[in-house]
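Lab notebook, design round three. We kept the backbone fixed and only want residue identities now. Task for the bench partner: fill in a sequence for the structure below.
Input structure tokens:
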């Protein structure tokens, strides 16, 4: 599955040939369980087994598992993306407010000194504010 990060996972779906039911187990630990079977008594195969039936049962069960995993991962990804957007927005808003305060302080100080505010300073500060807004939108 791919989202914010790529994830590869091995899942095996064991089907009991005697009753055609999925064996409920922790699918993530199946490879480890299978290595423990080596050397133990293994039942002989059931004659006339329709492998396609078992494959279909396993495939259907796997689809259910994957759909559940997709849902969980989708929610996690959505949360991470929304958190990142909120953090970027907050950071950018803080920088913009700082620039606006600098501009206001410049105008106030100049007026106290009975001087005109520096138009170049105001223009450059406005350009920095606009650039920060553009940078946020781009991210």
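Proposed sequence:
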């Amino acid at each position: 599955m791919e989202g914010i990060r790529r994830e590869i996972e091995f899942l095996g779906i064991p089907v009991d040939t005697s009753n055609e039911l999925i064996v409920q187990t922790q699918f993530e630990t199946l490879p480890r369980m299978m290595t423990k079977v080596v050397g133990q008594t293994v039942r002989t195969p059931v004659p006339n087994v329709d492998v396609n039936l078992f494959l279909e049962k396993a495939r259907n069960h796997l689809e259910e598992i994957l759909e559940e995993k997709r849902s969980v991962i989708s929610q996690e990804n959505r949360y991470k993306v929304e958190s990142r957007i909120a953090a970027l927005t907050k950071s950018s808003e803080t920088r913009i407010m700082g620039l606006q305060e600098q501009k206001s302080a410049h105008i106030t100080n100049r007026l106290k000194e009975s001087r005109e505010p520096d138009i170049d300073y105001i223009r450059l500060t406005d350009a920095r504010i606009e650039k920060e807004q553009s940078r946020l939108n781009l991210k």
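Keep this in mind before ordering anything: The CA atoms of residues 1 and 7 lie 5 Å apart.
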